[in-house]
Automatic annotation (TrEMBL):
EC number annotated for this UniProt entry: 7.1.1.-
Family stated for the protein in its record: Belongs to the complex I subunit 2 family.
Domain NADH:quinone oxidoreductase/Mrp antiporter transmembrane residue range list: 124-418
Location in the cell: Cell membrane; Endomembrane system; Membrane
Function: NDH-1 shuttles electrons from NADH, via FMN and iron-sulfur (Fe-S) centers, to quinones in the respiratory chain. The immediate electron acceptor for the enzyme in this species is believed to be ubiquinone. Couples the redox reaction to proton translocation (for every two electrons transferred, four hydrogen ions are translocated across the cytoplasmic membrane), and thus conserves the redox energy in a proton gradient.
Membrane-spanning segments: 15-31, 38-59, 79-98, 105-124, 161-182, 188-216, 271-290, 297-314, 320-343, 369-389, 395-423, 448-466
Catalytic activity: a quinone + NADH + 5 H(+)(in) = a quinol + NAD(+) + 4 H(+)(out)
Cell membrane as UniProt keyword: yes
Complex and partners: NDH-1 is composed of 14 different subunits. Subunits NuoA, H, J, K, L, M, N constitute the membrane sector of the complex.
GO MF annotation list: NADH dehydrogenase (quinone) (non-electrogenic) activity
Bilayer disposition of the protein: Multi-pass membrane protein
Protein's name according to its UniProt entry: NADH-quinone oxidoreductase subunit N
Amino acid sequence: MDYVSSFALYRPEEILAVGAIVLMLVSAWAGDKAAPLIGWLSVGVLAIAGISLIGAPISGQSDFAGMFHADAFGGFAKLLIYAAAAVAILIAPGFFVTDREAMRAEFGVLILLAVVGMSIMVSATDLLTLYIGLELNSLASYVLAAFLRRDGRSAEAGLKYFILGALASGILLYGISLLYGFSGTTSFAGIAVAMKGGVGIGLLFGLVFVLAGLAFKVSAVPFHMWTPDVYEGAPTPVTAFFASAPKIAAMVLTVRFAIQALGPATGQWQQIVIFCALASTVFGAVAAVGQTNIKRLLAYSSINNVGFILFGLVPGSKIGAASVLFYLAIYAAVTLGSLICVLQMRTKDGQPTEQISALAGLSRSRPGLSAAFAIFMFSTAGIPPFFGFMGKWEVFSALVIGGFWPLALIGIATSVIGAFYYLKIVKTLYFDAPGDVEMAPSRSTTEAVLITMAALFASPLGYLLIPVMDSATLSAASSLF
């Protein structure tokens, strides 16, 4: 492969890396007063990286001795990641409006560096690129979690995320060493060839440890313990970022690793994924019931949704992989919309509030915001005719087609349990008497536009996109096989 063709395969990563370095220098020279400009420039870099995906190989091409693979599956995930990252940067000024000193110029740069790692993750076809991409994402994320240096909750979130993330990275690295030791290679294709000869105890342990490390990154039970504290303590724009982009990257990486590297050991990894999926859906649904903080509730909701996404991986089929992408697209939009609504929860003096009780009677003073929040809750619960229903429909259909209909029944049952706390939010918005907390009107046009776009997507109007999304996700999933 000539150099021009080679560079074209990882053009988005080049754009993101160069953009991050240039903006880092700008932030060092210009200081924090240039934070708004650097934010908009960071969004521009993400947009250019997304546009550069046009014309990318559909069936896939590899480079770096097969360690990096550019295909439609990774390309679809990158578009979702770039969009989610851009939204996180755009809503940051609205959060830091009451504390200008907290809005640092490096916010957008850290997001870009994390996105570079995620781009490498979704295109990784080797254990080394898998680890490099994951760690590049994690290092920037640790700093983002503790971005509010004078806030004790933010510092605690960053420390917890760092300690538990380091533990997960150690587990992952140990699994990588086992897979390399017993297969003699770090490439996904080579590991698959080694497993065709039989999955010995060494390969089995390596498989378990790697999946455990990846389960931490997607916050699947029993590796979910960091999620509620980090979501609550981190700045809300960072929470929005954590709840969308890294989850998309880690989930897509997990699907690629399971299908391309562990294909011959499907019977073994299916048991692990089924357990994590069932535990996540049940625990996420039950643990959220008693929450009084909206960000903690959304953290448990995220764990619950991870379980449903993992259901799509269980069959190990093309339709299952497509259902994962379909669900991720809806999940990202609804989660970002919900957290932008949380960002709008400010008292008259401009101070943010995260208590669910503060939403009481909000429909009387902020009918538009309440309607959008209700749409997001109904959609996340999977209640028809809202678009979130189609995400669960795709996942359950993949399970039934693959012969896992008992899992589909369990998934439907846990959906009913989870619907309780989503409907509780709607009830608080529309039926509870207004409390002592009076919400301030919105002053951000950007947030209003983003909420409107996400609400329209999550509403029944989203059904108009089904033909396009079905075609795109199935085409992307086909490149895995």
